[in-house]
Every structure is written in structure tokens, then in C-alpha cells.
Request: fold
Amino acid sequence: MTISGFTMCKNASKLYYPIKASIESILPIVDEFIIALGDSDEDDNTLEQIKSINSEKIKIIHTVWDLEKYPRGMENAHQTDIAKEACSGDWVFYLQADEVVHEDDLNKIKNRCEELIDNKNIDGLLFNYLHFYGDYNHYNNGRGWYQNEIRIVRNDKDIHSFISAQSFRRIPNFDGISYRKKEGTSKLNVAKLDAKIYHYGWVRPPHYMQKKKIALDSIHSNKNSVNDPDVFNYGPIGCLTKFKHTHPKVMKEWILKFDWGHLLNYSKKYNLNREKMKHEKLLYRLMNKVENIVNGGRHFFSYSNWNLLKI
Reply:
């Protein structure tokens, strides 16, 4: 059994993505790691960061993004497919550039892949998620934050990245363009995996967070962000769940760079200069409280782009 790791990115270092830590986190259990590296800006040093890992497992594919041909976030899915198609493993393990795996979970992941390799009813494996928010000591389990997602799939040519690369679907006879089209697609059959994805996409200095938000808005909706503030307002961090465990070791140096705590609101008082996010709205905050009390924090009627098989 072999496993390929893969990812895609553009301007990762410029937008404060922990791309190096992300790749390093699963290198011990993959036989290769494929990276579709987009045409980054001149002041971005993502390529140098990746090369500094100095691993023969890493293979880089240089790409050019086309947001006109692949609008509304579909270029993310297209780039993900480019990397996936270059993978040779039996299983392919996808990490976005802000996602990291804890070393304590690596053996669990590899063992589960070995256990299910011959079970052709299983198309992929479903991970749990921790969405860190604002700093490295709080995570967001509110409404609007997905609690699970597919990150390992079989190396099957009919399995493709979907919509804006958050998940995967089976798309026979795919035209290579229509990543948002549901007609003719089907959900993957997945098995649960007792492992977490540590998502750091919302832990950046506030000015970097705003730059990332503007970049994503341009990819997904061509939104004009001229009148947006220069820094992102994270809202009341004091309302979030405190993280009391350990981070992946590969994140140690990255976390040491944290120096924006004085810019965060650690109270529970809302003082926003932006529209409320879903988890900040009163209705969803009340729903989240009920879920914490009666459902162990699991969301009711949650997002589910898969068929979960109990195995």
C-alpha cells in the first residue's frame, strides 16, 4: 500500500500560510508529496520555503491560474485536481496549505488506510476538524464551521475536487471545468477516522487576515474590497472554546511568531466594524449552546458531502 500527499497553493508565504509545516506534518507516512504551485507574486517565497524541506519525496508542478476560466473558487478545485492527477499512490492525502496533522495521529491514519485498502466500498476517509481562530489558544466550533471533511481518497480518476476544493465527489466523464455542477455527480462513501486536521487558516496577524480575505473574495466573487478596513476584526475571542492540548510539533517555530495578542479582543463583548459572521449571530449562538448541552457539541443538520459507512 502506498500513500501520496498533495496540495496546491499560490502566494502561500505572502498570505501567511504555514505551508512548510503542513507538508512536513505528513511526510513521514507518504511515499511522495505533490504540490501544484501557482504563479505567485515576485515578493512571495513559497518555492524557497518548500525547497528548504529538502525531501526527495516532494515534487513540484508549476502552474498558471486562470480565474476567468475557473471563476467562483473553481480554480482552487482545478489546481487541486492537477496535483491529484500526478499522484501515484493507492490512497491520496490532501492537505490545504493551512492544514496540519498532529504527529500523534500519523500511525492511526496509516493503519486505517492499510485496514481499508481492499474494501472497495470505501472511497475515502473522514477527518475531524479543529478550526483555530484569532490565536493558537482558541478554536471555533460555532455554526458555519464544518466539523468533518474528506481528506484521503482512493486514487480513482473519477474522484475530483469539488466546488472550491473543500471536498471531493465522484464525477464520471468530467469535463474538467464544471466544478460547481452537482448534476451527474455522487457523494463518496467514506469511513470515519479518529484523527484531526488542525486548521490554522484563521490565525494570522489581523492585517494578513484581511489580505487573505480580500484574496479569497477576489477568487470566489470578484468582490471590490476598496472600502474594506486594513485589518480584520476577529470579534470577541473570549466567546470561543479554549484549546488545552498540544499543537503539532512542526508548528512550534510558526507559533513562536505570534505577536498580535494586543490587537485581539479577549472579552465577550461584540465591537465589530464588519458584518457578523454566522457563528456570531444570535440565533446560531443559541443553537450552538443547545448543541453543547444536549449533543456533545455536534451540530444539528450539519454539512455532509458524503455517505458515512459504519466500518
User: Anything to note?
Assistant: The chain has seven helices and 13 strands. The domain at 1-311 is CATH 3.90.550 (Spore Coat Polysaccharide Biosynthesis Protein SpsA; Chain A).
